[in-house]
Write a structure and sequence with these properties.
Layout: E1 2-9, E2 13-20, E3 25-31, H1 34-42, H2 45-61, E4 68-76, E5 81-84, E6 90-93, H3 100-113, H4 116-124, H5 133-143, H6 145-148, E7 153-156, H7 157-166, E8 170-172, H8 173-177, E9 182-183, E10 188-189, H9 191-197, E11 206-208, H10 219-225, E12 232-234
C-alpha cells in the first residue's frame, strides 16, 4: 500500500497523518516534549531538525509492513528566523520579545521618519512591523555585535527542514518578501535593505518560485526514513 504522510507542525503539537491510496486516513498527535519546547524557544534549529527526523522515523515505522511512502506533505505554522554561525549553531533567535521589542519599534520609527521604511515596503509588498526579520537583524547588529560578527546566515525552521530533506537552501518568493529584505519588482534580495543591515546575499537562501521549490528527497534521507527513492516532499 502506498501512503502520503502529512505532518503539521502546530504551536502546541505535531499532528501526523498517514493517508493511503484509497483515501483512508490515520491521525496521530504528539504534544511537544520539554526538549522540543526549549529548542523552539531558542530556535535551536539543529536540535529541532534532529528531533523532527527522529519523529518522522518513528511514525514511518508504525505503518503496516511493506508500506510505501510516496509523498511527505509538511505544514509549518511556526514563525521566526534564527541567526546561525558557519556550523549552523544558533547564535540567537530572530524572534524579538520583552525588552527587545521597544528597541525594534524604535528602529521602525526611525526608518519611517527618514522615509526608508516606505521605500522598502513598496519593494517588498508588505507593511513592516516590529516582528520583521529585517529589524531583528538590525537589533543583532547594533545590540549584539559580537554575535553578528559570527553570523554566517539567517534561516527559519521551514528552510532548515527543507535543506535537510532536499539538500537545497531555498525560500519561496512570498516568504522572502515577508522578511523585508526582498524586492518583488526585481525578483532579487534588495541591495538597499541588505546594505542597511550589513548582510550579503550569501547569508540568505536562494529565492525561487513555488514551482521551482525542490521536492526530491536526497538519497541518504530516503534510506534513513525507509522511503521510495522517488519520494517527494511538498509544503
Amino acid at each position: 500500500m502506498k501512503y502520503t504522510l502529512e505532518i503539521r507542525i502546530a504551536q502546541d503539537q505535531i499532528i501526523a497523518s498517514a493517508i493511503d491510496e484509497n483515501g483512508n486516513r490515520r491521525d496521530v498527535s504528539h504534544p511537544y516534549s520539554k526538549n522540543w519546547l526549549v529548542a523552539m524557544a531558542n530556535l535551536d534549529l539543529q536540535a529541532l531538525g534532529t528531533m523532527f527526523i527522529h519523529g518522522l522515523e518513528q511514525f514511518r515505522e508504525q505503518l503496516p509492513p511493506r508500506s510505501q511512502v510516496q509523498l511527505i506533505q509538511l505544514h509549518d505554522n511556526t514563525d521566526g528566523w534564527a541567526f546561525l554561525n558557519q556550523n549552523d549553531v544558533t547564535l540567537a533567535s530572530g524572534v524579538l520579545s520583552g525588552a527587545q521589542l521597544p528597541i525594534a519599534q524604535g528602529y521602525l520609527r526611525a526608518l519611517r521618519l527618514n522615509g526608508i521604511a516606505g521605500q522598502l515596503e513598496a519593494k517588498a509588498g508588505v507593511t513592516f512591523t516590529e516582528n520583521l526579520p529585517l529589524l531583528a537583524v538590525l537589533w543583532l547588529k547594533n545590540e549584539q555585535p559580537h554575535l553578528f560578527e559570527q553570523m554566517a546566515r539567517i534561516c527559519s525552521l521551514q528552510e532548515y527542514l527543507h535543506q535537510i530533506l532536499t539538500g537545497k537552501d531555498q525560500i519561496t518568493t512570498h516568504l522572502a518578501a515577508r522578511t523585508g529584505l526582498y524586492d518583488l519588482n526585481h525578483a532579487t534580495w534588495d541591495p538597499q535593505a541588505l546594505a542597511l543591515v550589513n548582510l550579503s546575499v550569501d547569508q540568505l537562501p536562494q529565492v525561487v518560485t513555488a514551482d521551482k521549490f525542490a521536492s526530491q528527497i536526497v538519497p541518504e534521507m530516503v534510506e534513513k526514513l525507509g522511503l521510495l527513492k522517488d519520494t517527494q516532499i511538498r509544503w
